[in-house]
């Protein structure tokens, strides 16, 4: 069976602004859809309001500089842990055989990039039909002590190492638009984006958010070499979770596909 890596973006599982809040009703529908998919599935979830604000407050991504950050590491991890638990509870309710992984226990970075990931537990458990779930996280960093690694980076890294054919980024918009669809109703969806288009793109609005891992542009940059080596990357809206099954069936779904040329 084909291995698919699905990134559950922070924007789809949490209310991104304000205090941490899980979109439980929507996630319940997503979990139900996931239970019906006939693929080998590996899930990676983002942080949204459970991670970015605390990580920013304590400058976690920048690495260790003073002892006052240690409380921030602990608090970020505790908050992410509570989000993972909500996801796990919903998946179990729908009989998805999920196995939560702590990214910080099996991954090491160097200057913010993953360099050492223990793949064995993923491989063994995937092989018997379990569904590993990990998240963007605070992890150890050989250069800076600790860092934040995004779920996007993890999803693409695991896809390359585990030989997944497709990575799907589930978010709260239909894909990449020619301008911001949240502020411009005339924004047009870009259905196919080549690597050359991608290299030229800018995302001016994103520096205004609390997203410490780069938002949409981060997703795209992560995807470059996976796509150039033949992998497929799809950015789609999970607000209508039934689109996932449609997409996997080969039906027409509004989304952005990254293609080599
Ligand atoms: C960020 O993960 C992890 C933390 C801030 C702890 P992501 O970068 O994957 O999260 P989202 O999807 O943007 O919210």
Description:
This protein has 10 helices and 12 strands. It is of the alpha/beta class and 261 residues long. The chain has one domain: 3-Layer(aba) Sandwich (Carbamate kinase). An 8-stranded mixed β-sheet has the order 3-6-2-1-9-11-12-10, with helices on both faces. It has a 4-stranded mixed β-sheet with strand order 5-4-7-8. The longest helix has 26 residues. It is globular, with a radius of gyration of 17 Å. 40% of the residues are buried. Bound molecules: 3-methylbut-3-enyl trihydrogen diphosphate. The site of 3-methylbut-3-enyl trihydrogen diphosphate (IPE) has 20 residues, from helix 3, helix 4, strand 7 and helix 7. 3-methylbut-3-enyl trihydrogen diphosphate binds next to helix 3, helix 4, strand 7 and helix 7.
